[in-house]
């Protein structure tokens, strides 16, 4: 058995299926499919006054239908999808800690660690092939979508990520994800009652 694998991020693509081999029709269908895809305007969106955001430390906002968590920690702002890529747990009350030189939020549900700057999922493990296994940090690649925060004259803005590739946290922003989030929240509640 090798060390835990480090998977890169998955990238989605638009697939157009046609019966024949008509190239022009393929291109037309492709362009139609691209136009039909919802394009976020991205912002920047005003999310609050700097002083208030600093005091709150963690602020939840819904921007263009997307639920985003804005975190203030050690003089820096970060914006990240507010539901954990693992099973849709809310990150709102996640602790912030530095691991392997990276500032991370820890999901309260199953303690997954997500780097705030890049959205990378990281974990510590040992390589059983080593004579004396030493725990090391490994990366799972980008798992959580992050957004850009700017500040002008005491006002804080968030520009949504326009990266079109699929990132795992995207799932929990959609309708299916919402259902899964509700199921997971109910399961967690039940577990805590035991
Ligand atoms: S839901 Fe976040 S670690 Fe499982």
From TrEMBL:
Name recorded for this polypeptide: Rieske domain-containing protein
UniProt cross-references to PROSITE patterns, sorted A to Z: RIESKE
Domain Rieske residues, every copy: 44-143
Keywords: 2Fe-2S, Acetylation, Iron, Iron-sulfur, Metal-binding, Phosphoprotein, Repeat
SUPFAM superfamilies: ISP domain
One example GO MF annotation: 2 iron, 2 sulfur cluster binding
């Amino acid at each position: 058995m090798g060390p835990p694998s480090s998977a890169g991020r998955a990238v989605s693509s638009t697939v157009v299926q046609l019966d024949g081999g008509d190239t022009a029709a393929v291109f037309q269908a492709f362009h139609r499919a691209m136009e039909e895809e919802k394009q976020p305007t991205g912002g920047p969106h005003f999310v609050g006054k700097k002083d208030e955001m600093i005091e709150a430390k963690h602020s939840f906002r819904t921007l263009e239908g997307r639920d985003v968590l804005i975190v203030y920690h050690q003089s820096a702002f970060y914006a990240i999808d507010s539901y954990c890529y693992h099973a849709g747990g809310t990150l709102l009350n996640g602790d912030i800690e530095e691991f392997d030189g990276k500032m991370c939020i820890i999901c309260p549900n199953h303690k997954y660690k997500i780097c705030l700057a890049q959205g990378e999922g990281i974990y510590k493990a040992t390589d059983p092939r080593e004579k004396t296994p030493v725990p090391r940090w490994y990366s799972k690649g980008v798992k959580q979508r992050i957004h850009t925060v700017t500040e002008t004259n005491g006002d804080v803005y968030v520009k949504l990520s326009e990266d079109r590739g699929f990132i795992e946290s995207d799932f929990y922003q959609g309708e299916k994800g919402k259902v899964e989030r509700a199921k997971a929240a109910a399961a967690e509640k039940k577990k805590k009652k035991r």
